[in-house]
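Annex B.
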Amino acid sequence: MILIGRSSWVPPRQWKLWSLPPAALGYVIAVDLVAVLITVLAARSSLLGGPISDAEWTAFAVLAVASTLHLESARGIERRRELAANTSPHTNLKCLWVFASLLLLPLSLVIPLVVLAYVYSWFRVYGRKIAHRKVFSTATYILASAAAAAVLRAGGLVSEPRLPTDFWSLLVVLAAGATWWLVNYALVIGAILLSSPDATARDALGELSHQLVICAGLGLGIAIAAVQSSYPWVVPVLMVTVLALHRDLLLPQYQRAAGVDVKTGLATPSYWANAVPAELARAESLRSSVGLLMLDLDKFKEINDTYGHPAGDRALKAVGESVRAEVRQGDLVARVGGDELAVLLPGASESEVLEIAERIRDRLSTLAVSVDTAANRTAVISGVPASFGAAVYPDVAGTMDQLVLAADNALLTAKRGGRNQIVSARPNPPLDRADHQVGDH
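Diguanylate cyclase: predicted structure tokens.
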């Protein structure tokens, strides 16, 4: 058996691990097994190399306590960000404590620190989440740490503490940090691409700014290791710096997470409602355009009635992922109703909006979604068609309300016209002089 969440035990046959695609399942198990092998070899090497010193045990205790306090202090923001995670790597700052431990401790103590951090965060931060994801994350940290430790040894930094004391040792430590980042990043991207066939390479790579957070964490890890080596009781003081860094670097992610619909990973109606007028104001200042797509899933109620609401939620999430895969970088996809989505397309012309809409329509028409039914069976939903209404600012509207109304009216026309089609709102024809005069009278 395996523990899921805080207190729920499930039989091995019901583990979510087995629902992964075969390639992803083999990949995850292989990474986990390599991590176990590295753990065994590290423990054996530690036994052959003699007992761990009191200084190393003290450093381990300080780093373990500091890491735990950090996780506890930031667990609110981390829980919200975890719930909003989709097909991009989940960025966190556990790496700073792990990399600090790499410079101060043998690998046989680094690995328990990694395990402790993930076990604690599993129970206190993430709550009821899929167990194999947390085990895999622990494994990637172990593999990355082992690779970084090998770079340190190859560069001549064999005995602990392995801190930069000259230009060469600084280069070695930086190379070890780069290796740690690259190994962990590559392993996570591989898992995302194999387990989410609909995920694009852009989604899997995530944003560059997220990786800068990891680099900042690794850099702070070097500083913490240096302070711990000379003045260990100063480390708790650095917790204020760590928490400030956590807040400031991850605040943009947190703000996005606060506006993310938990079921689909798309933007919430409130987030979208704030984004539209801001984008219109920007377009006005740049004399640019803004496209809007409103789409409603045709006969989605039948999916809920036939397969159950959990299956409907799974289908809705697949739809959201498909829509995101067809829009451009910088476009905003939101869930604005039960089965109604909206796409904001900054700078798009009418032809570009219609082209994107057609790509989405084609993809949804052929979308295949595997779902679990109420009878504990697996079924495949073939095709989730949708109707589309398109409108472009300033061609057909000058305000947010006018733009949304134009797109909604076009959507209604599409549904009345037979569904699974795209209708574009037309600009209102200008009044001619005669009509204007009649109106005045």
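Residues 301 and 352 are 31 Å apart (CA to CA). The two ends are 83 Å apart (CA to CA). Further annotation is deferred to the next reporting cycle.
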